[in-house]
Amino acid sequence: MIFSTHLKTLQMVYALLVLGFFFLVFVVIAFSWLFCFWNAYFVWKYESHTLPNLLTLLLGISLIAVWIISLSGPARYFPRWLNALLMTAPVIAVYLLFIMYNFLVNLLLYQFVPRHYNQDYLIVLGAGLLHGEVVTPLLAARIDRAIQFANKQELKGHKTPKFIMSGGQGGDEKISEAQAMANYAISRGIDPNDILLEDQSKNTYQNMLFSKEIAIQDYGNSDFKAKFFSNNYHIFRAALYAKMAGLRANGVGCYTRLYFLPNAIIREFAGVFVMHKKRHFIVIGLITIFCVVQAILIALNIAKYQMM
After folding, report:
1. Collapsing DSSP states into helix, strand and coil, what is residue 190?
2. Which of 62, 198, 221, 255 is deepest in the core (most CB within 10 A)?
3. What is the pLDDT of residue 3?
4. Cβ–Cβ < 8 Å for 129, 173
5. pLDDT of 304 higher than 60
6. What positions does the domain DUF218 occupy (predicted)?
7. Quick one: pLDDT at residue 2?
């Protein structure tokens, strides 16, 4: 429509904006490895030095390797059948990018699920403890978010919800995560009578399953209303586990430091990928078979069925 106006200045501005957008996309893609290293530095500086916290570093190294291979162009020295076989990797990468995009869209949209301040139970998902008995700042943020939710629900004239602190006791922990969370909530002014402990779970699925059982036992039936609380990057995957456990509840996320988000989101994506690994491995297997067949056809010089 802009080009139909015959306004040269407007057309030039629009063309520059389009070119600028594509240039920005190119720069982001070309130098994404630099962002990964920058993020890895802050995660290494402020967080524990564990493998899950090194994901952006590993991704940055992988992107540099891909960039070097792309610029050097070794494929032009390979026979056609080998290039067809090597096409397996970029096609699988495109598939992974597609499901990553789908994951990010769902993760973003899930942040805007309506709150509905009329809940019977607020389930706080556990995490590791400091010195085996003290909640970490990350876990404290989850509890604080649940307390904030409960206070706002009361201000709206609804009943005070009960808290279900969900988390078992790890091998290196002196008390269960649930008990440590309850201790923290009580120190923040929460009535101990409003706290229920779920101290048997070992993972997010069990958090949901066992918390549902405790809520049913306390409420008398399964018609209760509940929300669960975790970090904003985790609530989408947690919601998938809630559905698997038959718990009708949506999540409320608490703030996460920005430097930690890229690493955490990659880890969450990997977790969701594993949840549906059978489906993804079938697709990846079909892609691999297709490329292998094409390589064989090219090697045998059978042009009729070649698609590469």
Report:
1. coil
2. 198
3. 46
4. yes
5. no
6. 120-268
7. 44
